[in-house]
Design goal:
Uracil-DNA Glycosylase, subunit E, 209 residues, 14% strand, single chain, alpha/beta
C-alpha cells in the first residue's frame, strides 16, 4: 500500500503540473472564430484567405492590418486607386460580384502567423452550404499558398464533383509577411479580378487535386 500511495501522489502532482501548463498554454492559444462571408449570392468570384489575423479579429474586419495590401489593391483595381474605407470596400466588391471568406471557421493560433495554427484545432468552413447558397460562383482565388493548402487538405476532397469543377487559382498573399514580392508585382497578379469582372467567365487552368 505504501508504494501505491507514493505512486498515486506522484500522479496527482504531475497531473496538477500538467493541467497548470495546459491552462497557461491555452491562454495564448485560444480558439479564434472567423467572420461571416462578405458578399451576396450574386457573387461569381470568391476570394479565400486562411484565417483572420489578430488585428482583423480585434477590428472585426477582413484584412485590417494596416500593412496588408488587400484593400489597397482593391482600390487600385476598382476605385481608380483612390483610398476607400472598409465599408466602401465592402460595397465595391459586392458591386463587382466578388465575395470574401476564409477557409477556416475557427482554429487555435498564437499570434497571426499561419504557421502557428494548431492543426488539431482546425475547423473548416462549410463550403457545401456556401456553394449551394451561392450557385453563381465560378472562380475561387486563394489569397496566398496557405489558404490553398488548407482548402486542398480540409475541404476539396469532401466536395461534390460539381463544386470540385469550379475554377481555382492561387494569387500572391497580400499579407505583409510575404515580402518576397513587391506591391506592384502583387497588383499585376491580382489584376485578373478586374479583367474577370468585365468579361464573360471562362475556366482557369488550375484544378484541385
Amino acid at each position: 500500500m505504501g508504494e501505491a500511495n507514493i505512486f498515486l501522489k506522484h500522479l496527482e502532482t504531475n497531473n496538477l503540473h500538467y493541467n497548470s501548463t495546459l491552462n497557461r498554454f491555452f491562454r495564448f492559444m485560444k480558439q479564434a472564430t472567423g467572420f461571416n462571408l462578405l458578399g451576396n449570392n450574386k457573387a461569381q468570384i470568391l476570394i479565400l484567405g486562411s484565417m483572420p489575423s489578430v488585428v482583423s479579429l480585434e477590428k472585426q474586419q477582413y484584412y485590417a492590418h494596416p500593412r496588408n495590401a488587400f484593400w489597397r489593391i482593391m482600390a487600385a483595381l476598382f476605385n481608380q486607386d483612390k483610398i476607400i474605407t472598409y465599408q466602401q470596400g465592402e460595397h465595391l466588391l459586392e458591386a463587382q460580384g466578388i465575395a470574401v471568406w476564409d477557409v477556416l471557421k475557427s482554429c487555435a493560433r498564437q499570434g497571426s502567423l499561419d504557421s502557428a495554427i494548431e492543426k488539431h484545432s482546425i475547423e473548416p468552413n462549410d463550403f457545401i452550404a456556401l456553394f449551394t447558397a451561392f450557385p453563381q460562383i465560378k472562380y475561387v482565388f486563394f489569397n496566398g499558398g496557405t489558404a490553398e493548402s488548407l482548402y486542398k487538405k480540409y475541404v476539396y476532397q469532401d466536395l461534390l464533383a460539381e463544386y470540385r469543377s469550379i475554377s481555382y487559382a492561387k494569387l500572391p498573399s497580400t499579407s505583409p509577411t510575404y515580402a518576397a514580392m513587391h506591391y506592384q508585382d502583387k497588383l499585376a497578379a491580382w489584376a485578373v479580378l478586374e479583367e474577370l469582372s468585365r468579361a464573360d467567365f471562362s475556366p482557369l487552368v488550375w484544378q484541385g487535386e
